[in-house]
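Sample intake sheet
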Amino acid sequence: MNSPQSLQRIQTLIADFQGDGDVFAEMLRNEDLPHLSFSQISTLEFCPYRYYLQYVLYQQPEPLPDYFTKGKLLHQCLARYYQAQKDGINIELIDFKEEIVALSNPAFHTHLLNALQVHSQNRWQNCEIVAIEHPFVFSISAGLPPMVGIIDLILRNGETILLVDHKTGRNFYEDDELQVAIYSRYIMERYGIDQCRLFYDHYRWVENLERIRKPAFQRKEVSTLPASWSSYLERIQLAAEKIEKIQAGTILPSSPSCFRCPYRHNCDRGH
């Protein structure tokens, strides 16, 4: 399926889409639709062999890291919170507690409940909630597969569109301008505007909110320079070329940073 056909089919899937990001990714896999995403590109740049395991063989990390499960559940809780607010329904931390404590791993409970308490203190207010868990697809450039993604939260404050990406982990994430550039370009095309703002809302897993040396939450605005789009596009094109080689059967070198990779126990490359 060529790029225009893939773009049209993905647009149809999005129009019928109901569910979370994993469901959307599964739909793309089941129909074998060519596409790119920021996650694919960042995974490839970290380790081409991890890309092969994750996006060609469709393996899950073994064992599945705890932070995968925790992060997904927190994203689901935050999505439900903002959807309730959009629908005019009041929802509080207690509404999530029973679901969280039902998890099999008790070590999750404190981290998640603390993260939700931090969210209640830092939740977005006085903005119109435009969309939650918003899937998108658009043509990034002629000759490249369509770009897909899911934006955690889209807000409007007056005439300004705000994008929010929720991050979770033991520490705060480094910025990646490429993600911002992709999301911003899609939003500007969709809404016919010349700028928008993107924020990383970082939730750090902590055991005790009263005894921490650095904050449990960080809201950071991440910016790009419009003049830098050519360099972002070059990065995307380079990744697309490598992905095409991997899909064709070429196994590219692996990364030396296996200690940071959740797929290190899947890997048979001797690291």
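Comment: The first strand starts at residue 36 and ends at 37. The chain has one domain: 3-260.
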